[in-house]
Fold each of these.
Amino acid sequence: MPKSKITKSLKIHTLIAEFGSDVFCTDGTVLFCNICSVKVNHEKKYYIQQHIKSEKHIKGLQIKKNKTQMIAPFVEKNVFYADITKMMIACGIPLYKLKSVEFKSFFEKYVQESLPDESTLRKNYVKDCYESVLQKIRLEIGESPIFVSIDETTDKAGRSVTNVIVGPLRESGRGYLLTVEVLDKDSNVKKCWYL
Ligand SMILES: [Zn+2]
């Protein structure tokens, strides 16, 4: 690529970094506004500043923002709810125990906290715990080659289950239980797990 083209592309990318890659994009030669679907003159920063102040652009941004809010309503997280979810999962306490009168009254008496419903935790907090554990596993494994162990066994209820364990392929590496799948005895369905 000629030097002038590289310089131009670099200049546009610098402007995108400044004004937001969710708003602008480029093919390396022109600056394009994703909100208004138009090319924007990038010769001077002033033109971009003018563009983002334009009525069309501001309206477009508002519509985009409203759409995003409709898709994913913001849930303000309660620290106590987040911590109790983490504690119960880590200690192997089933979340349905939150329905137990004794469990609830213990917390209300000694911790002065009202316990949330099981459904609230399942809907808004369990996924965060799952993501945080997956993130820890990813960090531990890093760029290392991995081992995957798939071990079929029978659980307490007599169901046929498969434990999927993954870990870094090095001497000090430990294995992490990635998932437990209950297998249907009557079918020969092969399952896949995506890491
Ligand atoms: Zn625009």
Amino acid sequence: MTNGKKLNSDIDFIRHLKKYGGDTMKKCFQCATCSVVCSLSPVENSFPRKEMIKASWGLKQELIHDPDIWLCHACMDCSQMCPRGARPADLMGAVRSYIYRFYSTPAFMGKALSEIKYLPYLLILPIILIFILMLITQGGDLSAIDWSIHQFKYKDFIAHGPIEVLFISGNVLVFTLAYLGFKRYWDDLHKFNQYKKVQNFIPSLVQVFKEFMLHKKFDKCPTNSARYYGHLFIFYGFVGALIATAIVVANLFGAKLGLYPEFLPEHMNMPLYLLGGVNFDDPNEVTEFVGLLVKSFGLLSGTLMIIGGLILLIKRQVTEEREGKSTYYDMLFLWIVWGVAFTGMCCVLFRLLQTPVVAYPTYFVHLVLVYFLLWYMPYSKFAHMIYRLLGLTYLKMYGRDSKIEIFEKNYNKYKVTEKVTI
Ligand code: HEM
Ligand code: SF4
Ligand code: SF4
């Protein structure tokens, strides 16, 4: 009898992988070209070759607790070079999507976000909630909405107060549930791996954060620079839009609670003449100027998100044949983020044009998409921002660097400084 190790194959896991990008994984004949071409792979025990074999054997525990899948930035170099067309990059994405589903709390939400047939149910919840907010604002009488009013404000259609209350309470609930899933994943990473710790959590997180702000790892792939710009724009656009929204909310709430007077004007006009000079002794002019700055910042952020999203969408469309397939996870997330940005910008435009007939419905759709994006974050591809931060931080704590980072750190050691004459 041999002393072989018993492998626990999980057939449901294999089914998931095949459905979400790994349908060609069995073509892999373990030549390791992919691991060689991947600039983000570490020197030892490199990826994605080892993930390919683990995936075909259905080794779920080994794969979902393999932190290397977060080092992979889906640049597609490996899939382009694979002589068998096994598409290792897509397989790595399929494992990541399994993690969003496996760690979701409650579990049914992970399932709901993974298939298009559940999409109407997911949409109906924010639609009903926003509809109720609209009814509350109109005192229960929808005929009270004035569709032809000039100088309208969105709060006449759906009041800000109930929106904020629903938004904050919903987010507290969702992020508490999300925390449980993320914590389970973090604990499992430690349980299933035995690397030697080289530094603590905080310095590792700071290092990851710094690298991410500059998109250093995205930058390591010259063949896919469009995705670098796409992500850079969408990420900073999203952060900018969050900041602009937070300023507007702070303006309303601070004034309501009597902490300070409103510092933003109520109208949407763009007093561009103020760029020529502001009289800081005139409080009205100062308010107008602060409003102009916040509005410009919001518009710039929205534009960045729209452009970034378009780059990513077009890139996927154009290269699908050559590089890899897009899954439901990829497309749902991309379209929702893009939809949030697009409807947000349309709301600004329609308010400037004073057309409530199109502005109110657009605002309704915008709110539905915003709730969809944030409330379903822990279960959709959007969860990558937390799982990836955790995975990358874990790797830093245990000193597992990409070979290109090791090369860059030691560059001076190997650099030829003396002129060699032959
Ligand atoms: C801590 C923060 C984040 C990190 C480390 C991160 C990193 C990454 C990486 C490495 C990818 C490529 C892998 C893949 O497609 O699965 C990716 C994809 C993506 N990320 Fe992020 N991200 C972060 C936050 C965000 C935020 C806040 C947004 C904006 C809403 C965003 C939007 C996207 C989109 C749209 C894609 C898909 C790109 C595509 O389809 O080609 N990310 N992210
Ligand atoms: S995925 Fe392709 S390149 Fe990588 S080991 Fe398998 S056959 Fe080789
Ligand atoms: S997609 Fe890019 S980063 Fe990911 S394994 Fe392939 S070559 Fe490496």
